[in-house]
Design brief:
Elements lengths: L9 E4 L2 E2 L2 E2 L1 H17 L3 E7 L6 H6 L4 E6 L8 H15 L3 E5 L2 H14 L3 E5 L1 E9 L4 E13 L4 E5 L7 E5 L16 E5 L29 E5 L10 H10 L2 E4 L1 H5 L20 E5 L5 H4 L7 E6 L12 E4 L2 H15 L1
Parallel strand pairs: 1-4, 1-6, 4-5, 5-12, 6-11, 7-11, 13-14, 13-15, 15-16, 16-17
Antiparallel strand pairs: 2-3, 8-9, 9-10
Helix pairs in contact: 3-4, 5-8
Amino acid sequence: MIEPNRKGEVWVFAEQEDEHISDMSLEICGKARELADRLEVPMAAVLPGWNVRELSYRLIAHGADRVYHLHDTRLEHYRTLPYARVMCRLIAKHEPQIVLFGASSIGRDLAPRVASEMKAGLTADCTDLEIGDYLDKKTKTTHQNLLLQIRPAFGGNIIATIINYDRWPQMATVREGVMRMGSGDPARSGQIVDEHIEFAEFDEAIKLIERHREKRKVNLKAARTIVAGGAGVGSRDNFRLIHDLAGAIGGAVGASRAAIDGGFIGKEHQVGQTGTTVRPALYIACGISGAVQHRAGMEESAKIIAINWDKDAPILSVAHYGIVGDVSKVIPMMIKAIKERA
């Protein structure tokens, strides 16, 4: 266990594949920059890989003061053991106070291994991060400037704030899309630190023979227009209306958790606190009541249109335009009007 280092840096694990930094890592860089500024410490990124040094400049542009770069053929493709070795060795050497990972398949695999090795706490799937104080009521001690790790709990029914005052570094994985990605500043300057790690024979226990990557079928984050359906659509068959409207306007199909739980559509379409956070130019919510968990994932859309039979539905409070009516009647009228103008 590393003793709390109040002057330690704020770190981001820079996830990259095929020499491309993930958007999730760049999103987290923006939040890490805010946290570091609040703590008045440097913000740094850890970039392991093979022939990826040039990516350091993009991390610097997005807020990193320092990039710890590792260049090794064993790091060309992600494998748990070599990457865990890198992170643990660098944490022990530099003693950061906060280490953040994206809540991707890689981050969810790597972060728990690192936390276990460093005997540190880890909060998974955070939707927000802040700096604040904690009063230990037993000892009457106030711990200042801790990482407040905020995430949904109990199936998204409550929001929990988790702290870690005695086991450092403070570690968390962060959900995709919940942090806004900035445009970056190419004029920013920063330091690239070339690190070297001695690997153990055990790190080579798993060999990569072949890689097969399946492309993402749904990319709600990148969609300019989203048509989302909720429980009010009524059934899986009726959900075809959502697909039809999305097709008519060239949008992607989203859904509330209630629609997912009802079996209307697959989970990859879920928008909300326990799904994908989106910020499209246009979001059309059809038969969605607007629970706080869903609104948290879409309320930053540029324009929101809500269709609901209940004039008191919470979704109408965040909508720019509201239509009170039955989605099974309103949507066909919308599609007809769109086609007539085409």
